[in-house]
Amino acid sequence: MLISVASGKGGTGKTTVSTNLAYALGKRAVILDCDVEEPNAHLFLNPEFEETENVTTKVPVVDMARCTLCRKCADICRFRAIAVAGKTVLVFPELCHSCGGCFRVCEPGALSEGLRELGDVEKGVSGDLGFVKGTLRVGEAMSPPLIKKVRTYHDLSRINIIDAPPGTSCPVIAAMRGTDFVLMVTEPTPFGLHDLKLAVGAVRILGIPHGLVINRSDMGDDKVRDYAKAEYIPVLMEIPFDRRIAECYSRGGLIAAMVPEWKESFMELFQKIQSQVLS
Amino acid sequence: MKVAVTSKGSDLESQVDPRFGRAKYIMIIDADTLAFEAVDNSENLNAFKGAGIQAATLICDKGAEVLLTGHCGPNAFTTLKAAGVKVVNDVDGMVLDAVTSFKNGRYTFAEEANVDGHW
Ligand code: SF4
Ligand code: SF4
């Protein structure tokens, strides 16, 4: 099973939910940190990594000795990653989406494949829990290919918890697409509600069953609950504001590891997700 | 010699458009005769990314040797440099005055881009 944990914005407690849920499930689960710009699940789960894979993408390299300056490459590139300037052809690797178009149209065979580094994927364990983490190279702007790579490390015989990046754009879609369930984490504030609506919009386009975790549920107002009710989105868990939780988080600890009742609550959360997926 | 100037309008009395890739017009001006062509850049105006590269390619193709503009980003600068086009940044005022100032040698060419790209 594939469960993605998402939130419309950062700082809602998404990582708290994904790490505690993964911890509670233990050896039955693998957590995949797809928040590649700022992976932080490892800070709470302290995994030991066993292998690292460098992830690259193909970009064109021009051999000017063969190039006839025909411009076909520049004309076909939607991303303007390759340009003919005077008597040279320039490649802007950071703009290239590796669509392969230029390679196909270059008749003299002046283009060969070069590599641009996107980041890396590390694989390991945190106790019995499987742990996979993607890290985007600093300065790299294109995270979806790396996120897709992280996701290939899933283990379908187990429960895969995918920690999605915040927001509602391409990287989040790459993390949620094809998952069995999207767990959305939000706060009962106007900002939380606003971002939740955007996130729900994206999830509905993808057609994935989804449910809500309301974090700091005793703060703010009832508008998130009212919205969830009106939209028939099940609220699967509420986490009240609790100094112990905040302290635990700031020390890089897990509430499910410290307080047995919380471990049970996260197990219950999983059972609710399971019954939502099966129904 | 042909000079390219980013412009808000299509004649020599128009104001220099400080933006490069997303300038309204790119004026290709013969510095000696002042004969000019105003190239409509509006299609590029809405380009998602790479507007600077596209505009730079256009200037290379038109055979301009110098570009007078406000701010030219790194990718556009690289493109222009590869084609041997020299760049003057921080140009403002009327297009005609900019060309005159250039002819009188009052500008210095940029060594590098003066704004970061936005991606
Ligand atoms: S691979 Fe695609 S995106 Fe990259 S330079 Fe070639 S045409 Fe452009
Ligand atoms: S398509 Fe090939 S030959 Fe034509 S300009 Fe591009 S690199 Fe040169």
Overview of this protein structure:
The complex is a heterodimer of chains A (about 280) and B (about 120). Helices cover about 35% and strands about 30% of the residues of chain A. With about 280 residues, chain A is an alpha/beta fold. Chain A has two domains: about 1-55 and about 120-279, Rossmann fold (3-Layer(aba) Sandwich), CATH 3.40.50.300; about 65-110, Alpha-Beta Plaits (2-Layer Sandwich), CATH 3.30.70.20. In chain A, α1 (about 15-25) crosses α11. In chain B, strands 3-2-1-4-5 form a five-stranded mixed β-sheet, sandwiched between helices. The chains are: A alpha/beta (about 280), B alpha/beta (about 120). At the A-B interface, β4 of A face α2 and α3 of B. Bound molecules: iron/sulfur cluster (2 copies). The site of one iron/sulfur cluster has 15 residues of chain A, from α3. One iron/sulfur cluster binds near residues 72, 105, 106, 108 and 111 of chain A.
Most extensive protein-chain contact, per-chain counts: A-B, 15 and 17 residues
Overall domain count of chain B: 1
Instruction: Trace the largest sheet of chain B across and list its strands.
Output: 3-2-1-4-5
How many domains of chain A, as an integer? Answer: 2
Lateral arrangement of strands in the main beta sheet of chain A: 3-6-7-2-8-1-9-10-11
Q: What is the typical, i.e. mean, pLDDT of chain A? A: 93
What structural class should be given to the helix and strand makeup of chain A? alpha/beta
Query: So, CATH architecture of the largest domain in chain A?
Result: 3-Layer(aba) Sandwich
Note the gap between the termini of chain A: 14 Å
Form type of chain B? globular
Distance between the termini of chain B: 34 Å
Q: What is the radius of gyration of chain B?
A: 12 Å
Uncertain runs of chain B are none
Which regions of chain A have little confidence, pLDDT < 50, spanning 5+ residues?
none
Assembly state (oligomeric): heterodimer
* CATH level 1 name of chain B: Alpha Beta
Give the overall average pLDDT of chain B. 90
Structural class of chain B: alpha/beta
Q: What's the shape of chain A?
A: elongated
Helix content of chain A: 25-40%
* Main sheet makeup of chain A: 9 strands, mixed
